[in-house]
Amino acid sequence: MRNEKERGIARIISAIAVLTACALPAAAWGIDIGAPAGWRRAGPAELALAWRGTDPLRYTVVLGDFDGNGSDDEAQLLVSDRLNRSGLFVFLRQADGTHRRHALGSDFHRSLTPAMGIRKLPPGVYTTACGKGYFDCGPKRSKEISARHTVIEFFKFESSSAYYYWDRSKKKFAEAWIVD
């Protein structure tokens, strides 16, 4: 009986967290850049799973200096009803105050949105999936990455993850599968 009561309380707390997160003013979500045309932030039904309750923004927004220019940038997990897709978008703040958009990992089906999330990781050296022995690295994959700036982890809850980090020499984001 106690377990049922605890589960009921946990469901109520989770529902309150979802409603609170969805009711937050835009500024509380981050920079308030706005989603690209045809894309939107995830809604209450997509954010209802209990695991999301451990993050105030439900693992849908990350702020950090991703490209090392000293300005706050923003990553967002967004949904396109028209395309039936969800994806990760990064908005890099430019010197003139505008934001340059990068679409990363925007090729997964919208039905996966409840299980997908993003989180911020510090700069550092990370062992990749092939470096951990999940598969052969081959000539084009590295056993580890060295990120000089904030890293974005794009993950499926209790499954795989990819790290996105700024490659200064190529002036674009690089991707590394981590799978933990």
TrEMBL record:
The lineage of its organism: Bacteria, Pseudomonadati, Pseudomonadota, Betaproteobacteria, Burkholderiales. This is VCBS repeat-containing protein. It comes from the Bacteria. PROSITE patterns: PROKAR_LIPOPROTEIN (PS51257).
